[in-house]
Structure formats: C-alpha cells, structure tokens
Amino acid sequence: MARLNWEFFKRNRTRQLLLIWLFLIPSLAIFTLYRIIPLFWNGVLSFQFWSPYEEAKFAGLYHYEEMFFHDDVFWTVLWNTVLLMGSAPIGIALALLIAVLVNTPIRGREIYRTIVFMSYPVMTVAVGIIWQWLYNEKVGLINYILISLGIIDKGIPFLGSFTLALPCVILASIWQVIGFYMIILLTGLQNIDPTLYEVAAVDGADTWMRFRKITLPLLKPLIFLCFVIGIINSFTSFDLVFVMTQGGPGHATDLLITRIYNVAFKLSKFDYAAALTVINFLFFLALTLLANKVSGGEAGAVQTDK
After folding, report:
1. Which residue(s) pair with 58 in the sheet?
2. Is residue 238 in a domain?
3. Residues 94-108, buried b or exposed e (16+ Cβ, 10 A)?
4. What are the pLDDT digits (tens) for 213-226?
C-alpha cells in the first residue's frame, strides 16, 4: 500500500480547500435533501399515475397532454400569472419615479422614503387582509369614500367581480413590493457619480436626456434585478391570492401556484400537480433567461479585477 503523502495536506492551499468544503458540506447536504431530491422526484412523479392509496404506474406524457389539450383552467391560470408578471414593469416604473423624487434635495425626503418602504416588511398575509378590507363591498374604505363623494350609490364587489378581482390583486401586489424596488433603485442612483450629470449639462443635455443617457444605462443591472424579483413574485404570490380571493371568483384570480395547491391538496391529484409544477418551473426559468438576454446577457454579473 502506498504511503499517504502528508506533505499534500500540509500545503496552505489544500488546508484552505478542506476548510471551505468542511463549511459547505452541511449546507450542500441540506440543499440537496430539501431542494434537489424533491425537484427530481417531482419530475419523476409527473410521468406517473400516482396516488397515496395505489401503486404508481408509468403514465408517459398523459398529464402534459391533459394539461395542454383538455384543461381549459390551465390556460386561464397561466394567463393570470402572465398578467401579474406583466405588472412588474409598472411597479418598477413607479418605484423609479419615487426614487428619483426622494433622491432630490427636498425637505423631509427621509420621511418619504420610510413611508414608501413601510409596505414591504409587512407580512403578505397581513397585506392580503388589509386590502381585503379596503375592497370590502359593505365596510371597505374605498367604497365608503366613493359613496361619500356621490360617485356610486352602493358598494362595488371588487373581489367578487370577474372583471375587477385580478386588477385589485395586482394593485395590492404592486403596493407591497414598490418600496423594495424603490430602495434598490435609490441605492443605484446614489452611486452614480454627480460629475457625469455636470459634464452632460455643460454639453447642453437637458434633464430628460441626462436621465435617458446616464441614469437608465447605469441602473440597468438593478432594473433587471427588480424585474427578476417581480417574476419571482408573480410565481410565488400564493399567500396574497389565497387570503384575498382563494383564486376566485371562479378562476378569475387563480395563478399557477394556487392551481398547483388546489389540484394537489383539494383534488388529491398529486401526479397532475407535479406536471403543473414542472411547467411552472420551466416557464419561470425561460422568462428569467429571456430577461437576461434582453438586458444584454451581463445583467447582475459580478465584476472582478483580473
């Protein structure tokens, strides 16, 4: 048997690598146990007929065929998810406008920043309850104000309307995250060198030109980050939708994530829910890659000195 080369373990580089792996192994083990294995098993489950009470059988593409060609609800919830995702640019634009305003030397700007940001730390369940009360047909603040101003005669069932329910949920979602967007974009604005604006002003560039040629390009990575957060939010807004509408009325506010929950735990179709989860993951991954490509392919990249 060859003798163990102890000199190898005495090297500083080797000891550093061993120490790094020593710290990484527990985290990697937990990540593998609770992320990688469930993801792999979910993919296997989507190709099976599976029930807690019966033996699993191979199903092939049956669940995907049912999803794409026979399940009209799937296309409804997919469209609702796209609409919620499409609201991200609106929230980012509003947050950028607020960030620019509170970045100017106005009186009390710290107070304004705090007020705008206060919506983000609030738990999503609490946000859903607050907006559910605001939209309430009988005792809601919005209907009370509209009736007091004589605009309407009786309360509007915002969350009970097939037309208004989803826009109301989208508005609540934007309100919750707009403060977070503002802080991210405000950080970027404060890191822009003021001399760039001064030089541009000397060259005759007006305010809009300076904003378009200096501010927006330099904020591009942070805008991309906000957009990715918006995509993630649209795919994980289960608690907000569940508290406010539970996906109703009908499927007017049902999203892919709430549909997965209902199919799995209300209809007990775990195999079909697994197929929905696979599509949800692939759709999310494709959108993120597309957004990164549109932004130039380098958004969010960490620059290191060579």
Report:
1. 48
2. yes
3. bbbebbeebbeeeee
4. 999 999 988 998 89
